[in-house]
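Hi team,

Filling in the usual template for the complex we talked about on Friday. All components are listed, including any nucleic acid strands or ligand strings, so the model treats them as one assembly.

SUBMITTER: L.P.
PURPOSE: interface mapping
COMPONENTS: three
RESIDUES: 1523
SEQUENCES:
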Amino acid sequence: MKNILIAAALLLPLAAQAADKQLLERGKYLARAADCVACHSVEGGAEYAGGLPLESPFGTIYGTNITPDKQYGIGEYSADDFYRAVAEGERRDGSKLYPAMPYTSYHLLKREDSDAIYAYLMRLEPIAKPSPQTSLSFPFNVRFGLGFWNMLYKNRVQLLPAEGKSETWQRGQYLVEALGHCGECHTPRNALGALQQDQRLQGGVLLGYEAPSLLAEDLAERGWSTDDLATFLKHGISAQGSMFNEMYPVLHHSTQYLPLDDHQAMATYLLGDQPPAPRKVSAVAFEQLDDSAQQGRQHYLNLCAGCHGVAGEGVPHVAVAMDGNTTLRLNEARNLLRVIDDGIKEQQFTGFERMQPMPGFSDKLDDGQMRDLLHYLRQTWGGQNAELSPQQVSQLRSEKGH
Amino acid sequence: MSTPELSRRAFLQGSVIAGIGISFAPLGSKAFAALFEERVTAMPQPWYNASGKAVARIDGVSKACGAKVFARDIRAKDMPGWPQQQGHALLLKVTRTEQLYQGFDLSVLPAELQPQRVVTASDLVKDGISFPDGHNLDPLLPEGQVPMFIGHPVALLIWHDFERYRQAKNILKFNDKVIRYGEQAPAFQSDPYGSFRFVRVGGSTPFEPDTFSSLKDSMLFPLIHNRKPAWGEGKVSGDLTQQGLYHAEQMLQQLQTPPDDWLVFDERFTTQSIEPAALEADNGNGWFDVASGTLHFVVATQCPFEVAEQTAHMLAPSRFGVKKLSMHPGYTVGYGSKDNNIHVFYAALAALYGSGVPVRLANDRYEQFQSGIKRHPFDMHYQLAVNKQDHSFQIFRAHMDVDGGGRANYSSSVAAVGATAAQSIYYLPRSDLAATAYYSRGVEAGSMRGYGTLQTMAATEMMVDEVAERLNLDAIALRKKNVFQSGMKNTQGAIPAGALRLDEILDKAAQHEIWKNRVERKQRFDAEDPDNLYGVGFAICQKDFGTGSEAPMASLEFSADGRVSLRQIAIDMGTGMATSQALLVADYLGQPADEIKTGETEWSELALTTSGNPYMISQAEQDAALRNPRWVGKLASPSSATNSSYYTGHSTREAARILFIHGLWPAALAIWGRGEHGGLANPYVVRRENAHWVEGKLTADGMPPIPFKLLAHKAHELGLVTGISVHGFNRWSWAEGEFEINGQRERVPLDALAVKYGDGAAAGQKAQMSRNGFHLLDRVSIKYPVTQLNNAMVTYYSPVATLVEVKVNKGNGEARVINHHSWLECGRVIVEELVLGQLEGGIAMGIGHALLEEMPLYEGGPGDGTWNFNRYQLPRAKDCAVWSQSAEILPPLSPSDPAKGIAEVVMIPVVGAIVNAVAHATGKRLRDLPLTPARIKEALHG
Amino acid sequence: MAKRLLSMIINSQAVGPLEVADDLMMIDFLHEYLNLTGSRLGCGQGVCHACVAILDKPDGTSEEVRTCITGAHFFDGKRIRTIEGHAKRDAQGEVSQLNPIQQKFVDQFAFQCSYCTPGYVNAATVLVEKLQRQPVKRSELEGEIEDALGKHICRCTGYVRYYNAARDVVESLGLVKEG
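RESULT (copied from the run log):
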C-alpha cells in the first residue's frame, strides 16, 4: 500500500504541484485573515502551538495547539474534522468547543476555504507542545451542555443581503463577518455570553474596554472615511488614532498581512457603497468649556501635553493627535478613561512605525482630576459635551482592564 | 583677592591662528575654575591606592554628582564675564530634495515669537564668512537651488530668551508649511567622495617580498566617469596602476573559472545606516563680545584643536572683527560623531550673530537624528577562493559600495579603511579590495566607532563561517588554518606591529565548553524549549588603532613640593583616558599625576608649525619641510580612532621618561652619592636600567629607597629638568628626533621638545625658559617615517573574539543573545575596569548593530526630522545578557608590552558571532543587517 | 498660554513661588529657570529616562518621574529630589560624601561618559529605598533590578557595571532576604 502511495506521489505532475503551492498560499492568507494565530499562539511561543489564556467571565479558556503534531496538535485531523471544528464548534472526539472559538462567525466560512487553511496548517512544522487544560467553573466546565447552548445561539450570525451591493462590498462582508469575525467583539453579548445578533456590530465590552460600534453612521459620526478606515486596518494608525488594547493584535497578527484591496473591501462593507460623510469636529476654545473641563486643562498640560501636544496636535510617529481622535469621540468615556489609567504597551506597527509605551496615570490622577481631564478632552476635541457624574468615573475606574 | 581682569589676561596669551589669538580653558580645568576665582574642587577621596592601582575614575565624583561636565550643561550665567541672558537658536531645514528651495515663511509664528535674528546664505556672503574646508559646500542653502540632501539647513534662527524660543520651536517643529518649495528640479549630483583599490600578489611565502602590493608598489585610483569609478585595462608591463589591474584581472578570471579543487564563495553582504546615538546631542554655546572682539565658545567636540583652528580661519576674514577666540571644550561623548562635525561651526555662527547675547545651539533628539553624523551603510560583494584539499585561502576579492550621504566628511577614508580591514585575521596570498564612497541625498555619514571595519570584518566572519559549513569543517579549525602570524604581510603588503596572538585566542575558543559541545547543547535546548531554536556562533577580528597620522602632545611637570601635573591635548569622552594617562605617569615618576588637564591646546612653548596633508605629502616635500626645526607633520590628533592608550600614552610616557632620566635620576644619584668618596653609592655598581619604583620610592642596585617628593625637591634644588612638553608624530612608526637635553644627547621617538629647569637653576638656564616658561630645544637631527608608509594603511592591531549563544523564537522570529564570552588581547592593561567597560559597551553596541538598529536612508528616514528612540531601537540591558556575560583579557607577553587601543575592535566580533549563531540555530544564512524578527521570520517560514 | 505661580521643594529647599508658563515641561524648568542641569535631556520624549527626578510622595514612597514629558506645574506643592541633592556637601559646597549608590558607581567604574548617570542614580536610589521598606528575596533580586533600571538607556557601558553595582549596593546594605 505504501509503495503505491509513494509511486503515486512520485508521479505527481508539475501542474498539481503548482496547484498545491497555490492552495498553501491561499490557506496561509486565509489563516491570516481569520487570525487563527492570535488565539492559537502565546506571546513568545511558536505560532499555532497554543497556550494563550482567554479570560472569560466563566474562567480561563486556553487556545489549543493546532500544529500538525500528532500528540499535542491536530496531526490526526482530517479535512472534515477540521471543518466541523471550525464551522460547527465540534472537536474530532465529538466534544464541543467553547464559543471562545468563534465558530458562531466561522460557520459562514466556505468549505473550500476551510480546506485551504487545513492544508496550510498540516504543512507546518509540528511543535510538540502541550496546551494547558481549560477548566472553567461549574456548570460551564460541562462541555456537553454546550450542545444545548449551541442549539440556542450558534448559527445566529446571518449575512445581510448582498443584492445591489458592489463586489468590493461583498468581499468585505466575507472578510468582516466570516474570516475577520469582527462581530465576536463588536457585538454585545448576553449574560450567558451569547452574541446578541439583533444588535450585530453595535459594539461590545471586552475586559473593561469597549469594542465600538461599527455601524456606518456611528463610524461616520466618529470621523471615519472609507480610505482612513482602510489605512487604519492596514497600518494600525490613521488620522483618527492608533489601534490599542485588544485591537492591536488584530493588526499585528492579521490585517497588516492582508492585501490592500482587502482593507478597502472591509471599509466599504462597514461604511457602505455610499458612505455617510464623516463628521468633522473643530477644537473648542478654552473659554467655551465648562468649569470642570477648564480645570482639566492643567492636568492635560501636566501629564499629556508632553507627548500629545499643547494644542492636541500629537507628535508624528510618536504620539497620536487628540484633535481628530476617535476615542475622544466615543459616546462612552470608558475607553478614554481606561487608556489614561492603564496606558498602552510598546507597539510595533508596519514598516518602521513603532510607538513607545504610553504610561498609565492611575496613580497620578484622583477621581476628581480624572473627571476634569475627561471633560477637557471630550469637550475640546471630542464633540462630547455630556457631563460625567463622579459615580460614573469611580465605577469605570474600579473596572480595571487587564 | 585678585581681580578677574588680571587672571583672565594670564590665559589669553597663546597661539595665534590666522591673526586670531586662541586660548583654551576646558570645562572642569583649573584654568576654567580660576576664571571663576574659585578653588579647584579636589577629589574628596584618592582615586588610586598605595600600589598605584586606580580605584576610581579621576572624574568620577563630578560625574556621579551630575556636575556640569558637559558643554551641554552650561548656560551663560555659568560663564565668568558673560552676560546673564541666554539666547537659543535652531536651524531650519528642508526635508525634500526633488524641488527647488524658494525660501521660508515664518508667518505661522505670531509677532511676539518671531526670532530676533535670522541668518541665511546671503548673510554669510555679505559678512565674509565661509565655512572651513570640507564643510564649505552651501552650509546654508541659498534660495533657488535644489537641496543637496534631506535635512539641508537653510537658515539659523536666533531668539534672545528661552521662553520665546521654546514656544516658537513648538510651532515650527514638524511643520511642513514653513519651507517654500518650488518646481521640480533635477536632483543634486556629485562625483564619488573617494575610490580606492588595494591589490596584492604575495611572494612564494607570506614572508618573501610581494610580487605586487600597495606598500611596495602603489594603491590604485580610478578615473571617475559618469560619477562612477572607471578602471582601465590591466597591463603586466604598464605603469603601476596597470600592473595592479593586470593582477586583479588574473584573480577575477581564476575566480570565474576555478580549478576543480577550489571552492569559490560568492555572495553579497549589506549593512544599514546607523545612528551613533551619543546621549549628549551636538551642542555649542557662545558669546561674541563685540567690544573686545572676543568670541567665547563652549563646545562639545572630540577635536578641540581642529575646531579652534578652523573656527579662527572661518571668522578671520569676516566683517565682525574677531580678534580672539576663547574655547571651552567640555567632557563629551561621541563614538566618532563629534569628530569633524559641522555643527560646531553653526554654533559659532549663532554666537557671532547674537548681537551681544550669548546663544546656545543645542540639538534635541529629533534634530540630532536629522543632522547628526551617521555610520556608513556598506554593500559588499565578497568572493573567496579556498583550496578544498588543504583548506587554505587563495584569493579574496571584495568590492564594496559605501553610501556617504549628503556631505563628504570622512567617507573617503572610511571606505579605504573598511576595505583594508576586510581581511580580518586571515593571511591572504592574493587579494583585490576595492571601495568607493558615493554621494547620496541621505544624512551625512562620517566617523563612527569601527570606521568601516565593523561593516567589512563582520561580513568576513560571516563568510568564513559559511565556508566552513560548506566544506564541512569546524569553523574555528578553518580559521586556525588561515590565521595571520607575526611577520606576515597584510593585504597592503605591510607587516603588522609586534606579536600577533590570534592563534592563542583561537585555541582558547576551540576549547571553550560552549563551542565544543554546541551540537549536543542545541539538541538538548531545542527539545526542552519547543518555542525557540538555540544556536552558538563565533567570530574573531583584529582592528587597527590610530589613523596613520597621529600627533599626540603632553606636558608634564612637578613642583618642588612634589606635585605632579599633566596636560594633555586629548579629550576624555567617557573612555577614562584622563584616569589612565594620569596613571601612566607612575611608570617613570613612581606616582600618578596629581592633576590632569585634558583638551588643552595651550602649546605655544613648542611653537609648532605644519603644512601640507600628511597622507598626501611627497617624500621630497617632507624632507624639505623638516629642515625647519619647528615643522611637524601634523599639529594635533583628535580624540578618535582608539588613539588614547597607545598614542596619547606614548606622549605621556616619553615625557615622563625624559623627566626621569634628566630630572629624577640625577637627583637620586646626587642623594645617594652624598658624602666622601661618592657616599653610599660608591661601593656598588648603580645602573639606571636597574632603577625600580617600589611603593612610590626609587631604588636601584641596593640603594636606599627615596620617596618621589624628596627627589622632586632635590631636582628643583639642583636646577635639573623638572618639566617637559613633548610632541610626537606617527605614520605607522614613530618619528625620531635627536635633542641635546641639559648637555646630553638623546635620541627619542618625538619630534618636538621643550623643557623647564628646577627652581635652583642658574640664571642663565632660567633665561632660556622664554617660551611660556619653557626652554624650547631645537632638533639636532630628525628622522621621519617615509611617506610611502601611508600605503600601509594599518600596522597596529588589537584582536578580540566573541562566542555567542542565541535563542531564535519560532513565533516572532526574534533573536535574543542569552550569553556571550569574549577574549581580548591589548598588550599592557592600564586600568582593567576601563578596558572591560569598553568591551561591555562595545558588545552592547554590536548587539544593536546586528539585531535592532535600522533606519530608512532617504525618504521616511531621519532626515525628515521626526525620528527618535521609539522607532530607532537601541539595545537595552535585557538585550545584552547583562548578568551572564564573561570576558578574558590575555596576559601581556611581558611588563614591557605597549598599551594597545581596543575601544573600537570590541564591538566587531559580536556582530559576526550573532549572525553565525542565528545560522546555527535556524540553518539559514542571513547576509543583510540587521537581523530583525521580520527578516528571520521570512527566512524561517518563507 | 498663561503663566501660573509654581512652588515646590527641591532637594529639601523651597523653590518659588515663580511665575511659570502653564505648559512648561519640568526639565526646562530645572534647566533654564533653576540652572539644575544634572537631569539630562536624552530624547525629550520619555524613552531614555536620562531626565528622571525622584518624586517623594506623602505616603513615604518615592518614584522616578520623567521630567521631559511631565509639566512643571505637576510638581506644584510637591517634593522632589534631583541628582544635585544626593551628595553631602561641606560649608564651601564641596562634596564631602556621596550617597551609597553614587559611591558604588564610582568605586565600580559603573559609568563612562556619565550623561545617563543621574538617571541611574535616581532609579537605583528609589530601588534601595523601596527595599529598605521591604527587603527582596535573593531569587527575585535580579528581577527587581531589571524592573528598576531596565528602561534606562545607556549607550556607553553595556549596562553591566550599573547592574552589578546596584546589586552590590543592595547586598551590602543588607536588603536581601533568603528565598
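MY TAKE: The beta strands of chain C are 3-10, 13-21, 52-56, 62-66, 79-81, 88-89, 95-97, 136-137, 176-177. The mean pLDDT of chain C is 97.

Thanks, L.
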